[in-house]
């Protein structure tokens, strides 16, 4: 796919698996301008970054509270979030459509951001509470002895230790939101608001015979995911191997 993005149409028809004779960025430039992939990329960033940030913040706060504090109804609340993991989006997409319409969010960025945060929270809370629960109680006790209140204990002691789990959650949530297709297809019909996966589908339908141009569009759509994984690879692996998913 990546090699085809740098080939001409003749080279692709001659041998689709061969390396390009010369590296040409014509397909990438045409996909960026003619296919409006620059606009689609900006829309995906506007949707993905607030979604990931919202899931991270809320998951850390809720996961820490469930893991470190003993209060009435804690297990019931946690089980309620676990049930959210088992509910597929397809079972709520029609009621959610009417809710977004009633709140005036249909056809806006909020139609994607708020539901994506809600759908990402069950897994995020499960992940973060499992990590916080595995941290020794002596760390929090020592921080309190040194004069830290509850917020400083969380912010300065516990949260830095949870960086591997946060990186794992960041990568997962980024990929899920970036690659989301059905949700924007239902709730974001305006062309100016289409994210990359949805824009790629309409682009492919328009240029079905130009495989080099389609490959360039796919390359643009997948590049951010690859970059994010490379940047967070070490922390991501540490989060998986340090018991974040136990």
Keywords, please?
72% helix; 0% strand; mainly alpha; MetI-like fold; 246 residues
What does this structure look like?
The protein has 246 residues and is mainly alpha-helical. The chain has one domain (4-241): Orthogonal Bundle (MetI-like fold), CATH 1.10.3720.10. Helix content is 72%, strand content 0%. The protein contains 13 helices and no strands. The chain is globular, with a radius of gyration of 22 Å. The model has no long low-confidence stretch (mean pLDDT 84).
CATH architecture: Orthogonal Bundle
First-residue to last-residue Cα separation = 36 Å
How confident is the prediction overall: mean pLDDT? 84
Rg is: 22 Å
What is the strand tally?
0
* Assembly level: single chain
Instruction: Give me the CATH fold name.
Output: MetI-like fold
Instruction: Provide the low-confidence segments as ranges.
Output: none
Overall domain count:
1
The rough form would be described as globular
Share of helix, binned: over 70%
CATH homologous group name: MetI-like
Reading off the top of the CATH hierarchy, the class is best stated as Mainly Alpha
Beta-strand content bin:
under 5%
Structural class: mainly alpha
Sketch the major β-sheet.
Answer: none
Order of helices and strands: HHHHHHHHHHHHH
Count of individual helical segments: 13
């Amino acid at each position: 796919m990546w090699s085809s993005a740098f080939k001409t149409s003749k080279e692709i028809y001659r041998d689709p698996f061969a390396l390009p004779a010369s590296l040409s960025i014509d397909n990438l430039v045409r996909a960026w301008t003619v296919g409006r992939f620059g606009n689609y990329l900006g829309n995906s960033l506007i949707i993905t970054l607030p979604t990931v940030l919202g899931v991270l913040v809320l998951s850390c706060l809720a996961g820490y509270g469930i893991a470190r504090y003993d209060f009435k109804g804690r297990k019931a609340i946690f089980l309620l979030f676990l049930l959210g993991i088992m509910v597929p989006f397809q079972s709520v997409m029609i009621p959610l459509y009417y809710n977004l319409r009633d709140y005036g969010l249909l056809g806006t960025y909020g139609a994607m951001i708020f539901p994506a945060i809600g759908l990402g929270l069950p897994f995020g809370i499960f992940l973060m509470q499992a990590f916080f629960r595995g941290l020794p109680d002596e760390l929090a006790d020592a921080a309190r002895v040194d004069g830290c209140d509850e917020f400083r204990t969380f912010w300065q002691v516990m949260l830095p230790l949870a960086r591997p789990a946060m990186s794992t959650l960041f990568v997962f949530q980024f990929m899920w939101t970036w690659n989301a297709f059905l949700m924007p297809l239902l709730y974001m019909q305006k062309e100016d608001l289409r994210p990359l996966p949805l824009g790629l589908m309409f682009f492919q339908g328009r240029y079905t015979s130009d495989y080099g141009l389609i490959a360039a569009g796919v390359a643009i759509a997948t590049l951010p995911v690859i970059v994010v994984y490379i940047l967070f690879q070490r922390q991501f692996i540490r989060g998986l191997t340090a018991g974040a998913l136990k």
